[in-house]
Write a structure and sequence with these properties.
By secondary structure, the chain is mainly α. Helices cover 83% and strands 0% of the residues. The chain has 18 helices and no strands. The longest helix is centred in the first third of the chain and has 36 residues, at 89-124.
Length: 448
């Protein structure tokens, strides 16, 4: 039976420790995905196809906001991991308290701006008029939970940097159970449709945030959270933002690039739009399983970089790259084989399921190719390099996708030509990120 004591990242066998670190994070990430998936599943089964389309049409915007906060939490993780690896515990405490204030403020800003701009952005996306009212209602309520989501990602980043990935899992499990129960109550009993599933998500996010803050406040280590120490440190704020903002912006820019893809999807009929929305749930599921390994990569590299351990930096990267590729390949194969069963969770319409199955088959052959890009970005961030990897992502993946929509897709005009842009953009960006990581690794380790 495993102890709840945080694992050691700077000593001991790497592969089993990375696996032990990653598995609870995988489950945690899957639970976060299930928040949104349960929303779509419940409205699709109990409120009808129109409500399904309304909630599904907001997926990219939800990904934009939540992805930004998850990226910022990753920056907190790397900063804390470096100081923990170096044994600089006073700096860890400053990092923790400054990070909470930064992320809470960011969550509030995203909530206010997002709620105000919801109708405008949904209009830009070409959301179908019949789906617009429900989409606005869902998204505005959902965005009210951004401060709570920001606080949870702050706490998860801090605990992960210390090697504790199990407590965030416990808290998300409790929140996930609450989310599903409230979904069923609000939609089936109170007939609240889109508003009900959004409110359920917000309340669940508040619970997970409260639990993780309570946990950190009871810790006596340097990464504990204490009200008397809750004040910003300007130097730490700059350092955290230097890593966090590019990471958050990278995730947000991916979502913005995907807005163009959603706009292209919206040029097809409603059946194709709804099928795409149902199948797109697989994206978040696969990405977030892989993201657990990326968090391990940045945490292990961050701590070992702080400890001056060159060999473990390189080995941590290679192990994480192997793991993330293997995870994507395995679960993609499962999705392709059992695609109809997966899609039946979200729709009972045969036409919608067939449209979704087309997307699953193409993406199932593509997901694993994203591992080189994302794992290498995480490795560069573990070395304290965040800006250049973000620029490379913008150029190699985001800009490339927009160009693809306006050239290749415009020429062929088929849904297949649209979905194929993912594998090409991941491969191109991954190779450029690898070249930069090799440069960053050689530069930083030469100083150790």
């Amino acid at each position: 039976m495993h102890s709840d004591k945080p694992l050691e990242m700077t000593r001991g066998p790497l592969f089993p420790n990375i696996l032990r670190f990653s598995l609870p994070l995988m489950l945690s990430n899957v639970l976060q995905v299930l928040f949104n998936m349960s929303d779509i599943a419940v409205v699709g089964r109990f409120a009808g196809p129109e409500a399904l389309g309304s909630v599904g049409s907001t997926t990219i915007l939800v990904t934009l906001f939540t992805g930004f906060l998850i990226g910022m939490g990753g920056g907190v993780n790397v900063t804390c991991a470096m100081y923990l690896g170096a044994g600089r515990h006073g700096e860890v405490s400053k990092c923790v308290h400054t990070s909470l204030l930064l992320l809470l403020g960011t969550g509030l800003l995203l909530a206010v701006s997002g709620i105000a701009l919801t109708p405008f952005v949904l209009g830009l996306l070409g959301t179908k008029p019949i789906l617009m009212a429900g989409a606005v209602r869902y998204l505005r309520i959902y965005l009210a939970g951004m401060p709570a989501l920001a606080v949870f990602n702050f706490g998860s980043g801090v605990l992960s940097a210390a090697g504790d990935t199990r407590r965030p899992l416990y808290y998300l499990t409790a929140a996930g159970i609450l989310n599903v129960a409230l979904n069923l109550l609000f939609v089936i009993v109170f007939r609240m449709a889109e508003a009900g599933v959004a409110l359920a998500s917000v309340l669940a996010q508040c619970l997970s945030a409260a639990l993780i803050v309570l946990s950190l406040s009871r810790r006596h280590e340097s990464f504990g959270l204490h009200l008397s120490l809750l004040r910003p440190d300007a130097a730490k704020a700059r350092q955290i933002l230097r890593l966090s903002l590019p990471a958050g912006l990278q995730n947000a820019i991916f979502a913005l690039a995907n807005l163009f893809i959603q706009g292209a999807v919206n040029t097809f009929d409603a059946v194709m739009v709804e099928g795409n929305a149902a199948a797109a749930n697989a994206d978040a599921l696969i990405y977030d399983l892989m993201a657990a390994v990326y968090m391990a990569c940045s945490s292990f590299i961050g701590q070992n970089f702080g400890a001056g351990n060159k060999t473990r930096i390189r080995k941590s990267y290679l192990i994480c790259l192997f793991l993330s590729f293997g995870i994507a390949a395995l679960f993609s194969a499962v999705l392709v084989c059992f695609g109809r069963t997966f899609l039946s969770l979200f729709t009972s319409d045969a036409g919608v399921a067939e449209a979704g199955l087309l997307r699953l088959r193409i993406m199932g052959c593509s997901y694993a190719f994203s591992a080189l890009m994302d794992c290498t970005i995480a490795a560069s961030r573990g070395l304290g390099h965040s800006l250049v990897p973000t620029v490379l992502v913008i150029l190699g993946s985001c800009v490339f996708r927009v160009l693809w929509v306006f050239t290749v897709f415009r020429h062929f005009g088929t849904i297949e030509s649209l979905y194929l842009l993912y594998i090409f953009s991941w491969t191109l960006t991954g190779l450029s990120e690898l070249a930069y990581f090799i440069h960053a690794y050689r530069t930083e380790t030469a100083r150790l």
